[in-house]
Structures are given as C-alpha cells and as structure tokens.
Design goal:
single chain, Na+/H+ antiporter like fold
C-alpha cells in the first residue's frame, strides 16, 4: 500500500467518521458500527489494508486512543457530578467485574472445556468495560449528567482493573506461584490507582497555575497535550495507571474554577473553548482510527469460536442486567436508566491488549485468546451501540413518571 493510498484511505475514514458522528447526533445511528464495518471491509473483504501491516502499530494506536479519550472524558466531566457518583461507580465497577468474571469463567470452563486457570484468565480479560469505547458512546447520547458521570468513572476504573487482574493471573499461570494471589492483585491495583490519582491531581493543579501565565498563547492546547503524554509516560514508568492519570488530569483542568474555590485561591484559569474544541477534535480522530483498527482485527480465522464468543457476550449482558439493578437500589434515577446502564458493556482496549500478551505466552489455548476477545469486543460494542437509541427513547418518559411520583426532578 503506497503513501498516497494510505492518505486516501485516511481521508475516506475521517469522512465516514464525520458522517457517522453527525448521524449519531441527529438519529442515534451507531457510528461505531459504521467504523467497525469499514475496517473489516477494507481489510478482510477488499484487502485495501493488510491487518498484518497494521498489527505492529497496535500498541501505539491503543495507548494513544486510551490516553486522549480518557483525558477528553475528564475535561467534559463536572466535578460535582463526578464526586457524587464516585462511590456508586466504584461499587458498580467492582461488583460488575466480579459478576462478569464469574459468568465468563463458568461459561468457558463448562462449555469450551478449558482448564480452570485458562478460563479464569479469559474471564478476567473480558471482565470490565472499556473507557475508550464507553466515553465516546455515552458522550453524545442524551442521558442525564449523573448517568454519564457514573459510566465515565466506572469504565475508567474497569480499564485499569482488568489489566492488573489479568496480568497477575497470567503471571501465576506462567511462573507457577500460587500463594498470596489476592494480596498481589490488591497491591498492584492499589499502587496503580494511587499513583494515577496522586500524580494526576498534583499535575492538574500545577498545570492550571502554569496556564495562568501563558493564557492566550496560540499553542497552549498543544503544549497541554505534550505535557499529558510526558506525564503519562512518567506515571506508567513508576507503575501507575496512565489512564487514571489522564482522567484526573483532565477533570481538574476542565473544572479549574471549581477547584480554585475549593483550595481558596483566585489565581486560576478556566479552560477556554478553543482548547476544549482542539482536544475534542483530537479525540474524534483517534476514536475514528481506533474503531476502524478494531474492525481490521476481526478476521474470523477460527469459525468454530464465533458462536461461543457471541454467547459469551450475551452471558456478560445477562450478568450486567443483574448487577445494575442491585447496585442501583435506592436510586430512582439509576433504576429508570437500567437499560442504558446494563447495555453499556463494551469491551475494548484493555481486553485487546491483555489478549495479545496472553497470545505471546506459553500457555494452552494461547492463540485463541485474541480471536475470542476481538469477537467479544465487536459483539458488545454492537449491543451498546444499539442499546443507546432503544433505551434513550424510553428514559425521558420514565424520568417524567418518576418526577411526578417523587415531586422532585432528581432523586439521585
């Protein structure tokens, strides 16, 4: 494929991304499905792009997409909403991962007849939702701010948890250590979250202060992006979560005035519209490339696992329909949006990355992990994309009924 052909393909890709985004806003047509289909057709049907040619760039595409989408998601979060929804989001993330792991592990163990540890590893890989997919999907859906904040925070936690849990299980399988597995997982999770949140908070406040001196400079948004990348590298090098860092860093920058009042200082800055639009545009580009890339990775080289992978995805959906009402007890607004919360289960970046790591290890069924995971990603993305227009139409009516019964507009 020549350089000119690559440019042409990128042009077509971005145009379809724009059309998909436009249709999503106007008609709730799932733009992600169009990008997935475009990637699959371009790679496996028309052979315009060779998936093997793109594969070496997958770590770059994956990590770039995750960091920018998490940062942009943080910019769009209101601090008051994030603070209010954090406890419920943590509960939904923890219970959701546990239920998803249990259902997936049981399915793989009993239906596919895999060994217990292999089943547990696959269950961990597909156990959590993907912030790289949830945030773009829910960001343009017409849902209340409480629901959007809840899903943003839950997916951010999931993205980090899935990687840590799965990699610890894989280490147990390859090294053979079986003692203190739970404590090892807890320690790894705690370290990644503490570093991500801590560095994100300190860097966010520091950069808000720096921005007061360069306010109005033409390229302050590009400089902010450069700082984001450098600090993500530093956090990951220290063993922290770059994704959590990007979310917290974006949250503080996007709520500069609120945090100024919180720490009782007048010297701060509110992120201007130009910077917000710039980072939104960057997020659009990487989101478009990311989902087309996922479509390229769907090869169907193992036809015998297609049906089991789809059934596994439905098992994950069933588990979420049990978890969401349980976690939403006492919250009328959450119960009114059970459909959206339950169908917002897309697996993505974290699962794909860990599956590739598992495939390169010396364990049984290694080569099947990426095949199954990509199919689960595609299926769960379709479920989520289709679920939004279905349940978004029902939610406003349900909200009005709840408001009439309770006499208030928001009971969360």
């Amino acid at each position: 494929m020549t350089a000119i052909q690559i440019l042409g393909f990128l042009g077509i890709l971005l145009i379809i991304g724009f059309i998909g985004d436009y249709l999503f806003k106007k008609m709730h047509f799932p733009d992600i499905l169009a990008l997935l289909a475009l990637g699959y057709v371009a790679g496996n049907v028309l052979h315009i792009v060779d998936p093997a040619w793109v594969a070496p760039a997958s770590p770059i595409i994956a990590n770039l997409s995750l960091v920018i989408i998490m940062f942009n998601g943080g910019l769009g979060l209101e601090f008051s909403q994030a603070q209010a929804q954090a406890p419920r989001a943590i509960a939904l993330a923890l219970v959701g991962i546990a239920a998803s792991m249990a259902s997936a592990t049981a399915f793989v163990y009993y239906v596919l007849d895999w060994e217990l540890m292999n089943s547990l590893l696959l269950g961990a890989i597909v156990g959590g939702t993907s912030p790289a997919i949830v945030m773009p999907l829910i960001g343009r859906a017409k849902v209340p701010a409480q629901i959007s904040s809840l899903l943003h925070i839950e997916s951010a936690i999931n993205g980090a948890l899935v990687i840590v849990i799965a990699l610890v299980i894989l280490e147990v399988m390859t090294v053979g250590a079986t003692e203190n597995v739970a404590s090892a997982i807890a320690k790894a999770i705690g370290m990644r979250f503490l570093l991500g949140v801590g560095v994100g908070a300190v860097a966010g406040f520091a950069w808000l202060w720096v921005l007061t001196f360069i306010e109005g400079e033409l390229y302050d948004d590009i400089l902010t992006l450069a700082v984001l990348f450098l600090l993500c590298l530093a956090v990951e090098s220290l063993g922290g979560s770059g994704a959590i860092f990007a979310l917290v860093f974006g949250l503080i920058l996007g709520n500069g005035m609120d945090f100024a009042r919180f720490i009782r200082t007048r010297r701060t800055i509110e992120i201007h519209n130009t910077m917000m639009k710039f980072h939104s545009q960057i997020s659009f580009i990487v989101k478009t490339l990311f989902f087309a890339y996922l479509g390229l990775m769907v090869t169907f080289d193992e036809p015998r696992i297609i049906v089991p992978s789809i059934i596994l995805s439905l098992a994950l959906l069933a588990a979420r329909f049990i978890v969401v009402p349980a976690v939403s007890i006492g919250k009328r607004n959450l119960l009114a949006h059970t459909g959206i919360l339950a169908t917002m289960l897309p697996r993505g970046l974290s699962a794909a990355v860990v599956a590739e790591i598992a495939a390169s290890s010396d364990i049984s069924h290694a080569r099947l992990y990426p095949e199954i995971v990509i199919l689960v990603i595609a299926t769960t993305v379709i479920i989520s994309a289709v679920g939004i227009p279905i349940f978004a139409r029902k939610a406003p009516r349900e909200n009005r009924e709840i408001g009439e019964r309770s006499g208030i507009s928001d009971s969360s």
